[in-house]
Design goal:
Blueprint: H1 2-13, H2 38-46, E1 56-61, E2 67-69, H3 72-76, E3 78-79, H4 86-95, E4 105-106, H5 115-118, E5 127-128, H6 129-135, H7 138-148, H8 150-160, E6 182-183, H9 184-196, H10 203-212, E7 215-218, E8 221-231, E9 238-248, E10 251-261, H11 267-284
Antiparallel strand pairs: 1-2, 1-10, 3-6, 4-5, 7-8, 8-9, 9-10
Helix pairs in contact: 2-11, 4-7, 4-10
Length: 292
């Protein structure tokens, strides 16, 4: 387009230009966008937390299709997804017809998951998919997995190529403390497919998930996200995820971020560190506005 505009200017002025006038200067090409310094952004966000090397990871995809990781090895490391699996669980539930909209009601099963065992009043009642995702209502999604069934769950994990595709450890808990593991790069691939509408599920299922996930406007951008927090194997500590995408002026940028911390770190501190690290790194990259 720049060449066409420049040519039009030259042609339009040709009749009035004096003979022998020097040719118009060529239009300089637009400078290439600077590559994302994902490693630097993550390191700067991690520094105030005193995290050791290898304790955090960030993968970001750009609108032109590039995928940038803070470190290739961490991007490929598979870890338990914890409640970020609610993205997939919702997708599968919608694809098999159990969820018909973002406001469809997920039932709570007090017999299978008694309130005293659940321990969180926000999780012990029927609520919409949208609300259940916002509070990360674990028992509602455990019930959804049972309703999906092992055969349909396995078939969808295989089709989606989600992590190691394992449902070992129990149909209603394999993503919490069972065999399922997924990498940050694989999480980003899933989100990219969700946004592009290319996942092997119905378009309606993808639209429901895009609509239902929590979102927040931060400056001029909107961040769509799902958290996930769980224990590492053998009591080795915590894993805390933030997975989603940022809608900005230049398009959508899927991301996946995690951090590991010792089991001695209080749960509330872990959640605060996740926000400081992951959202801090996204802000450092200029994808969202910095928040106090």
């Amino acid at each position: 387009m720049l060449r066409l505009v420049a040519l039009a200017v030259v042609v339009g002025c040709a009749g009035s230009a004096s003979p022998g006038a020097p040719p118009a200067a060529p239009v300089a090409p637009a400078p290439a966008a600077a590559p994302l310094d994902v490693a630097g952004a993550l390191a700067r966000a991690a520094a105030p937390l005193g995290l050791p090397a290898g304790a955090a990871c960030l993968v970001v995809a750009t609108p032109d299709g590039a995928v940038v990781a803070s470190e290739p090895a961490c991007a490929a490391e598979r870890l338990r997804p914890a409640s970020t699996f609610k993205i997939v669980n919702t997708l599968i539930g919608a694809d098999v017809g159990l969820i018909t909209s973002a406001d469809a009601i997920l039932p709570y099963d007090p017999v299978r998951y008694p309130p005293a065992q659940v321990g969180n009043p926000a999780w012990t009642h029927d609520q919409s998919v949208r609300d259940a995702l916002a509070v990360s209502a674990v028992p509602l999604y455990r019930r959804l997995a049972i309703d999906i069934g092992a055969a349909r769950m396995q078939a969808h994990l295989d089709a989606l190529a989600y992590g190691n595709r394992s449902i070992a450890g129990g149909l209603d808990r394999f993503w919490l403390d069972g065999g399922l593991a997924v990498s940050a790069a694989e999480q980003v691939a899933l989100v990219r497919g969700l946004l592009a509408g290319t996942l092997p599920v119905t378009p309606a299922a993808m639209a429901i998930v895009r609509e239902a996930l929590p979102r927040e406007t931060v400056g001029a951008a909107t961040i769509h996200w799902k958290t996930g927090t769980g224990e590492l194997d053998d009591g080795a500590g915590w894993i805390a995820w933030l997975v989603g995408w940022v809608d900005g002026a230049d398009g959508a940028r899927p991301f996946a971020c995690w951090l590991r911390e010792p089991a001695t770190v209080p749960f509330d501190d872990l959640r605060a560190h996740r926000i400081a690290l992951c959202r801090g790194a996204l802000a450092d990259l200029g994808l969202i506005a910095a928040t106090p």
